[in-house]
Amino acid sequence: MSKRNLSDLAEKMKDIDFTMLSTHSPGGAIGARPMSNNREVDYDGNSWFFTRQDTQMVADIERGSQVGLSFQGKAGIFGVRPFFIAIEGQAELIRDKGAFAEHWSKDLDHWFEQGVDTPGLVLIQVHAKNVHYWDGEEEGEVQIEHGPS
Question: Which domains does the chain have, with CATH numbers?
Answer without folding.
Answer: 6-143 (2.30.110.10)
